[in-house]
Amino acid sequence: MAPYQGEQMTDQVWKRDEIESPCLKLCSIHPVERICVGCLRSMEEIGMWSRMTPDERRAVMDELPTRAPRLRKRRGGRTTRQG
């Protein structure tokens, strides 16, 4: 495979047309929720992504926005005080 002008070859794997991916290259697994803080997929979903059918990937992607609130940690403050 010839190198792509102006781009690293390694970046091309993230731009493949045949596999839609929510990956943002901000890969870090949340220690409690066990989902990636970048793309919101589980470790299992990330591992199976290339073997999923387009319909399976679409179902996961449709669910991802509902996972974002799981990563917001409340720290207290005025809204949690009772008095």
Describe this structure in words.
This protein is an all-alpha fold and 83 residues long. The mean pLDDT is 80. The chain has a domain at 21-69. The protein is 24% helix and 0% strand. The chain has helices at residues 9-12, 43-48, 54-63. The relative contact order is 0.13. The chain is globular, with a radius of gyration of 17 Å.
What is the N-to-C order of secondary-structure elements (H for helix, E for strand)? HHH
Biggest beta sheet attributes: none
First and last CA, distance = 67 Å
Beta strand count: 0
Figure out the total of helices. Answer: 3
Based on Cα principal axes, name the global outline: globular
Strand content: under 5%
Rounded mean pLDDT is 80
- Regions with little confidence, pLDDT below 50 for 5+ residues: none
Helix coverage percent of residues? 10-25%
SSE class = mainly alpha
**Estimated radius of gyration:** 17 Å
Please give a quick description of this structure.
With 83 residues, the protein is mainly α.
Key features of this structure:
83 residues, single chain, mainly alpha, 0% strand, 24% helix
Task: Give the SSE layout.
Layout: H1 9-12, H2 43-48, H3 54-63
